[in-house]
Design a protein that fits this description.
TIM Barrel; 2 domains; eight-stranded parallel β-barrel; two-stranded parallel ribbon; 14 helices; 12 strands; elongated; binds 3-methyl-2-oxobutanoic acid; binds zinc ion
Length: 386
């Protein structure tokens, strides 16, 4: 089976930076962009140039700094936005303008007080404007997740005819179930006659915790680009997490996809973004959380110590994480206790571990986690008793 490339479009610096309190300065953004390029993403959405002079400067400086990666600037379907994005991207080796408009009936009525026909016209017009400045134009149909499929197909056909190279189908409110999002992509593939002239992109939000599942459903249905952010940062509950989709594609080679992302850089990248944006990563976060490779219950620890693959589908070094941890709690068993003592240089036999175990449980019940210092005290108590 020939493997198909899934393009990774990172929007940490645009959608990710929309998180309250996450404002970055230009220097920080350039540093993150350079690391994203080293990570191997295909496209970096560097900002929304018309939104502020600072964002304009960041997109400009990132365009100057990057060597290979496509640099993308966001705009609304407004001529001034598009001109400003084009100006900010002027020095990019591979510039892309990302422009679009809301296509759900709710957006058409509530935001634009317009009709479907008027919105279709504006969609075509904004792609045409953008094409005056760059070859690579991505169109987004905002709230595509709640847009009627038949109308969405007409909009997508028209913007591809106008020159869109990528068509982004955002589930802006994180509303879709994975099968619905997959069906939407399949509908476009089957009902847009010129769809083979553009790449379909998934842009999923996490309001129901489905952003990653929806993006994967999208690529299974035929999309070839995923828009995502480091640590899943983004507006409200966030976006599809880059580290999750990259590792799903890597783990499930049966799907026949690959990305250009270097997995061993995922944890260092996550730490850089978390520290720079001052946004701690939840401990149970897949791939990059501090507990992602920690084992604390006796049953798991015993299996893990016999063969790590019993409880780990990914080795921590594959994603640049610290080694797996055996955490000692009141749920831990004798094998984990003996293992941790061995790491401290005490090779206790079975009887000795049996003797230590009640003392360990007493300490574990009193504390959340039994640490090396506690173990050293127990070891000392045992040697005094002997
Ligand atoms: O969620 C969304 O619809 C967006 C678009 C601007 C692409 O972020
Ligand atoms: Zn978004």
């Amino acid at each position: 089976m020939e493997e198909k490339k899934i393009h990774i479009f990172d929007t940490t610096l645009r959608d990710g930076e929309q998180v309250p309190g996450c404002k970055l300065n230009t220097k920080e953004k350039v540093e993150i962009a350079l690391q994203l390029e080293a990570l191997g993403v295909d496209v970096i959405e560097a900002g929304f140039p018309v939104s502020s002079p600072g964002d304009f400067q960041s997109v400009r400086d990132i365009s100057l700094a990057l060597k290979e990666t496509t640099v993308c600037g966001l705009s609304r379907a407004v001529l001034k936005d598009i001109e400003t994005a084009a100006e900010a991207l002027r020095h990019a080796r591979r510039p892309r303008i990302h422009t679009g408009i809301g296509t759900s009936d709710l957006h058409i009525r509530a935001k634009f007080n317009a009709t479907r026909a008027e919105i279709l016209e504006r969609a075509v017009q904004c792609v045409r404007w953008a094409k005056n400045f760059v070859d690579d134009v991505e169109f987004y149909a905002e709230d595509a997740g709640r847009t009627d499929n038949e109308y969405l197909a007409r909009v997508i056909e028209a913007v591809i005819r106008a020159g869109a190279t990528v068509v982004n189908i955002p589930d802006t409110t994180g509303y879709c179930l994975p099968y619905q999002y997959g069906e939407k992509i399949a509908y476009l593939i089957n009902n847009v006659p010129n769809i083979d002239r553009a790449v379909i992109s998934c842009h999923c939000h996490n309001d129901l915790g489905l952003a990653t599942a929806n993006a994967i459903a999208g690529v299974i249905a035929g999309a070839r680009q995923i828009e995502c952010t480091i640590n899943g940062l983004g507006e409200r509950a966030g976006n599809t997490a880059l580290e999750e989709v990259v590792m799903i594609i890597r783990q499930h080679q049966d799907l026949g996809f690959y990305t250009g992302v270097k997995p061993e850089q995922l944890n260092p990248m996550s730490r850089l973004v978390s520290d720079t944006m001052r946004m701690p990563v939840q401990p149970n976060k897949a791939i990059v959380g501090s507990n992602a490779f920690s084992h604390s219950s006796g049953i798991h620890q015993d299996g893990f110590l016999k063969n790590a693959q019993t409880y780990e589908i990914i080795a921590p070094e594959e994603v640049g994480a610290d080694s797996s941890k055996i955490v000692l709690t009141a749920r831990s068993g004798r094998s984990a206790l003996a293992y941790r003592f061995r790491k401290l240089g005490y090779d206790f036999n079975r009887d000795e571990v049996d003797e230590l175990y009640p003392l360990f449980l007493k300490t574990a019940d009193a504390k959340k986690e039994v640490k090396d210092d506690d173990l050293l005290q127990m070891a000392k108590a045992l040697s005094v008793a002997e």
